[in-house]
Amino acid sequence: MVKSDRPRFWLMKTEPEVFSFDDLMAAPGKTTCWEGVRNYQARNMMRDDFKTGDMVLVYHSNANPPGVAGIARVVREAYPDPAALDPKSEYFDEKSKAEGKSRWVMVDIQAVSPARQVVSLDLLRSTKGLEAMQVLKKGQRLSIQPVTASEWGIVCKLLDLTAPHAANAKC
DNA sequence: GCCAACGTTGGC
DNA sequence: GCCAACGTTGGC
């Protein structure tokens, strides 16, 4: 078995008004498909780098406060996002329709544990060791971002997970 | 609602 | 391939 250098930790943004971590907890099997990513860089990361078992920080953007609401794991690797072909979907994509197939992909993620309290952007910003996190950078709009193992460890402590047993292996 | 930052589009 | 115009993101 060759040791891989690929990131094993990710951050995924969602607007809680659209789909919150609570919604994920309430979903069947605490699992959902992560539809609607319409940015090539983000798509490529999901398509090429996301592996089953990778861990995810679920980040609430456009929220009060914005911050990490919980952790999840990747339970299904990239497959075509059918919403791109559905004219009634807000994620419909004219070009995919013209090509006859979705040019976008999604993965499935499953909730692992909510944060006891949302770890706000402010807190992330003021925590030593997280200075290089992409989400802290001004103008960083990517909805999918790699997270280093060290950052993951630090954020997990801040999250004070309510289901520590579930995260033991990775935290 | 403002607006800075960044991605995408399309004329050339 | 340049780059201006436009659209979107997302904190504030």
Describe it for me?
The protein has six helices and six strands; from the N terminus they run βαβαββαβαβαα. The chain is of the alpha+beta class and 171 residues long. The chain has a six-stranded mixed β-sheet with strand order 2-5-4-3-1-6. The longest helix is centred in the C-terminal third of the chain and has 11 residues, at 149-159. The two termini are 23 Å apart. The model has no long low-confidence stretch (mean pLDDT 90). The structure holds a DNA duplex (12 and 12 nucleotides).
Q: How would you summarize the topology of this molecule?
A:
Layout: E1 9-14, H1 21-26, E2 31-33, H2 40-49, E3 55-60, E4 67-80, H3 94-99, E5 105-120, H4 121-125, E6 144-147, H5 149-159, H6 164-167
Parallel strand pairs: 1-3
Antiparallel strand pairs: 1-6, 2-5, 3-4, 4-5
The structure holds a DNA duplex (12 and 12 nucleotides).
Write a concise keyword list for the protein shown above.
DNA-binding; alpha+beta; 171 residues; single chain; six-stranded mixed sheet
Give a quick summary of the entry:
The chain is of the alpha+beta class.
Unreliable spans are: none
Sequence of strands across the biggest β-sheet: 2-5-4-3-1-6
| N/C terminus separation | 23 Å
Largest sheet data: 6 strands, mixed
Quaternary state, please? single chain
Radius of gyration: 16 Å
